[in-house]
Design goal:
By secondary structure, the protein is mostly loops. It is built from three helices and no strands. It has helices at residues 3-15, 274-277, 305-331. The longest helix is centred in the last third of the chain and has 27 residues, at 305-331.
Length: 332
Amino acid sequence: MKRRDVVEVIRNARQNGEIPDLSGVDLSGADLSGGDLRGANLSGANLSGANLSRANFIRADLSGANLTGAKMDGARWHGVKLNNANLGKAALAGQQLDSVQLSGANLNGAVLREAHLRWSSLANAALEQAVLLDANLHEANLSGANLVGADLRSANLSGANLSDADLSEANCRQANLEAATLVGANLAGVRLELVRLSSANLAGADLSGFDLRTVDLSEANLTGVKLNKAQLYKANLSKATLVDVDFRGADMREADVSHSDLGGANLEGANITIEQLELAKNREGATMPDGKPYKAPEKSTAGGKPEKRKATATGLAAALARIQKQQGSEEL
């Protein structure tokens, strides 16, 4: 189908108050640059190699469409459905893709540098080796996504859902993962230098041997996390939930664990001072660096002294009253 045919289908549908139906149509290599395709049904269409520059796809349905090799610079995508679409190696740098549905889409090797993907759904999407440098993925749904080897340097993933995602060998250096959910995520070999993880949920993660020096993990949920032999020099763990964390052999010099919950944590062999640990709000059930169980300090008996003094004072007052009474009787 050529451009004039597409224009005619769209015009006729809109004149009849219908949704333009181009589903399953072969538009490979077609020139649709600047075209008005708002709300059109292009599900399953073949748009490979097509020129889609500056095309308006707002709220269009491109589910299952093939867009490999398509030219898409300047296209408008707000609210578009691209579920299960093929966008492998797509050039989408700087594109506005907020609130776009990309669940199950193939974005392997796609260039999404500085792209805007806030609130977008990328659940179970394939993003292996994708370039997401400086991309904005605030509160995006990336659950179950394949991000193996992806470039996420300096990306904004605050509030994003990365549960069960595969981030193995991904580069997340200086990324913002504040309040992100990473439960069940595969973090093998991921780079987390200078990452912001405050208030993030990493419960159950395996971060054994990871370099987390100076990383911000304040108020994060690290319940059951493996951090044995991890580098945590000057890491911020203040107010974090560190229940049942394995810190064995970890370098925790100058790490901030103030107001954190270390209940049940294993700190055997960890490089951390008692002074640091005393700032935690809870250490019940923890294993201390010397391998011994935490023992709460004995309560001071000084608290009983005021009661003793009070009882003595009462006794003296009673004795004085008796003496005064006795003196009064003698005078009579």
